[in-house]
Specification:
2 copies of one chain form a homodimer. By secondary structure, chain A is α+β, with helices and mostly antiparallel strands. The first copy, chain A, has helices at about 15-25, 55-65, 75-85, 95-100, 100-110, 125-135, 165-170, 225-240, 275-280, 285-290, 320, and strands at about 5-10, 30, 45-50, 65-70, 120, 140-145, 155, 175, 185-190, 200, 205-210, 210-220, 245-255, 260-265, 305-310, 325-330, 340-350.
C-alpha cells in the first residue's frame, strides 16, 4: 500500500491544519515554504525550504507529490500552471487568477450572477478623483493585488481629500469600491469535489477588528432565505470556476436580507475554523477529501458555537481559555507574538 | 516565547495522536522510537531513531525535552527512572511497574480496594496444576509480563489437559486468573493532573474480537451505580499511584452490576479514541494537559457514539466509511496492513 503525498504550498497555520487533516486520512504531506520549521512543517512529513517561485523547488515538489494544493491565494499563478503540467493542482489556477485581483474577482462574481459592491478600476490619481466623484466622494480604495487582513486599503468619507492617495497606496493598480450599508458580515465555506458535487457548511456570522477576523458565530443571525442565497452563490461560483477544494466566500448582509459578495478565498478560511469543533468533518479534512478525489464529508454541525481568533498578545489569554468548559483551544506553533499575527483560535460550543 | 518540548517514548498511533494534540496546544514533540518514519514521527517535530533502552538516546531525549511521557506500558522501568533524574516523567515509573506485571497489577488493585478476578501466581508446571485445581480446572493462563491484545494467553475449560502448558507459554512467570462470568466489558478513561485533580470520561462499553478491541460504544449499557463505581475505582487507583496523565481501566460487569477490574493501561487507551469525535477535549489532549501541568479539560460528551477499530484488511472498508454521514475516519499512516495490526479507527456519532 503506497501512501499518496499531498504537496502544500505555504507553511502557515492553514497548511498546518491541512497537514494534520491529511495525516488522519493516511496521506503524507510535503510543505513548500521559505521559512524553516514553519507551523505546517512541524506536523508534516517533509518541508522544502525555498521560495514559492524557486524552479528547482517546484520541480522537486512536482516530482515528490501526487497532488498539489496551497494554503494561500497569492501563490504565483505561473508556479501553479507549471506544477499543473506535472500533477493535479487543486484548486485550479483559474481560481488564483480570479482571487488575486480584486477587479477580476468582482468582474467574475458579477459574471456568474453574484452581486458585489459597485466598483471602479483606478489606475492613476485622475482615475481616483473621477471614481470618487461617481460614488459621492466616498468608498474604500484598495490595491487590486496582495491585500489581506485590511492591509493596502484606504477609506474615504464624503469630504475627504483624495490628494496623493494613489501614490500613498504604492502607485499600483487600485480599485475603488462603493460603501455597502451592511447590517452584518457572514461567510460560507463551500467545497466542490472532483466529481462536481458541491456542499456548504452552515453560514457563519463574522466580526472583524482592525480589518482582521475577530469572531465567527454559528448560526448567523440571518433568515433561511439569506442562508439559501449564500449557498446558491457558492454553487454558481464553484461551478463557474470548475473548482476543486474548499473555498471561503465573504458577504455583506443588507437590511433587506440580500447578499453582496465581498471577497473570495480559494482555500480553507479563518471563518471556517469552527468546523473542527462543531462538525464531524472539518473544513481542513473537507479540502483534503476534495483535492484527493474522496467523497465530500457531511457538513451538519452538532453544536452552535463561537470561534474567536487569538491575535498577537491574545495568546496571553490561553490559560483562561483552557479553563473554560466546552472550549477547543487550537494554537499554531508560532514562537513570536507580533501585533496582528494570528497565534491560534478557540471555539466555544454553546 | 520558548516552546516546551514533550518527549514521547514510542512511535505508534497513540504517540501520533498525542503529538497532534500537543501541537494544537503549542508544544513541540520529540519521538523516541527505533522504527524510522514511524506513525508518530510523521506528525512530530523530531524523532530519535533508537531503541527505548539506548543510553545515549535517552540522554538526548532528556537533554532536548522539558517533559517526558510515553505511549505504551512496556517502557523499561529503568529507562523511566533514569529519565526522571533529569526531567519530569509522567505517568510516574510506579505506574509502569504496576502495569507491566499482571500479578503486581492485581495485587495493587486489590490493595487500593478495587476487586479483580481471583488469581494465582504460576511459576512452574506443578504450580499450574495446583492453581487449576483451585479453580475447578478452568481459568485463563497469562504471561505476567509483555502480553497485549490477547497474546501470551491460554484458556483452560474444565477437563482441558494442563500438560506442557507452562513451557508452551515460554517457561516465564505466569498468572492463572479465574473465569469471570461477566455480562459485558467496559472501560473508563481517567486523568489526574499535577494538582491531584481527577476527571473521567464517560464509561465505554467494549467488544473484543480475537482478543483485540473491536468496538467501544458510549454510553455503555450500565446503571448509574455501575458508572459511579467505575469512576470511584479510577479515583482510588490514580490517587494510589500518585498518577499524572491519562489511564485506561478495563472492567468486567457482573450480572448484578458490580465491577471486576481486568487490566489497566497507564497511557491513552484504544477504548478512549471516541473522545476525539464526541468530546471537545480528547483523551490525547487530556493527557498532554495533565503531563504539562495545564488544567484538565471538561469530559462531557456532546454525542453518543460507536468507535470501531480498523484491523488489518479492515483498511479496505475506508472508502465505505468515508461515505457515511456523522463518521470520523482516523488512519495511522501505516503502509503495511498485517493481520491484527491496528490501521485506524472510525467513530460514528449517533
Amino acid at each position: 500500500m503506497t501512501q499518496t503525498t499531498i504537496g502544500i504550498i505555504g507553511g502557515g497555520q492553514l497548511g498546518r491544519m491541512l497537514a494534520m487533516a491529511a495525516a488522519r486520512l493516511n496521506f503524507r504531506t510535503m510543505i513548500l515554504e521559505p521559512q524553516a520549521d514553519c507551523p505546517a512543517a512541524q506536523v508534516a512529513n517533509r518541508q522544502i525550504v525555498a521560495s514559492y517561485t524557486d524552479p528547482s523547488a517546484l520541480a522537486e515538489l512536482a516530482r515528490s507529490c501526487d497532488i498539489i494544493t496551497y494554503e494561500f491565494e497569492n501563490v504565483p499563478v505561473e508556479a501553479a500552471h507549471k506544477l499543473a503540467e506535472e500533477r493535479p493542482v487543486f484548486p485550479p489556477a483559474k481560481a488564483l487568477e480570479v482571487a488575486q485581483d480584486r477587479l477580476t474577482e468582482k468582474q467574475f462574481l458579477n459574471g456568474v450572477g453574484i452581486p458585489t459592491a459597485d466598483f471602479r478600476a483606478v489606475d492613476n490619481q485622475d482615475g481616483l478623483v473621477a471614481a470618487l466623484a461617481d460614488f459621492g466622494g466616498q468608498g474604500v480604495l484598495k490595491t487590486r493585488r496582495m491585500g489581506y487582513d485590511g492591509k493596502g486599503q484606504k477609506v474615504f468619507r464624503a469630504g475627504d481629500a483624495a490628494d496623493g492617495a494613489f501614490a500613498e497606496l504604492g502607485g499600483v493598480p487600485l480599485i475603488l469600491e462603493s460603501f455597502v450599508p451592511f447590517e452584518r458580515e457572514v461567510s460560507v465555506i463551500a467545497a466542490r469535489g472532483t466529481d462536481g458535487s458541491i456542499v456548504c457548511f452552515d453560514v457563519a456570522e463574522n466580526v472583524h477588528r482592525n480589518g482582521i477576523l475577530h469572531t465567527s458565530t454559528v448560526p448567523a443571525r440571518i433568515t433561511p432565505t439569506t442562508e439559501q442565497a449564500a449557498r446558491a452563490a457558492a454553487d454558481k461560483l464553484l461551478s463557474g470556476l470548475g473548482y476543486v477544494g474548499v473555498i471561503g466566500i465573504e458577504f455583506f448582509v443588507l437590511p433587506d436580507g440580500s447578499l453582496i459578495a465581498n471577497e473570495i478565498a480559494p482555500r480553507v478560511h479563518n471563518s471556517g475554523h469552527w468546523t473542527e469543533a462543531a462538525c464531524v468533518v472539518s473544513q481542513f479534512e473537507q479540502h483534503i477529501r476534495a483535492v484527493a478525489g474522496l467523497p465530500l464529508g457531511a457538513t451538519e454541525r452538532h453544536s452552535d458555537c463561537v470561534m474567536t481568533n487569538l491575535i498577537g498578545n491574545d495568546i496571553a489569554d490561553v490559560p483562561a481559555w483552557l479553563s473554560r468548559t466546552n472550549t477547543l483551544v487550537h494554537l499554531y506553533g508560532k514562537t513570536e507574538a507580533r501585533p496582528g499575527r494570528k497565534m491560534g483560535h478557540v471555539t466555544e460550543l454553546k
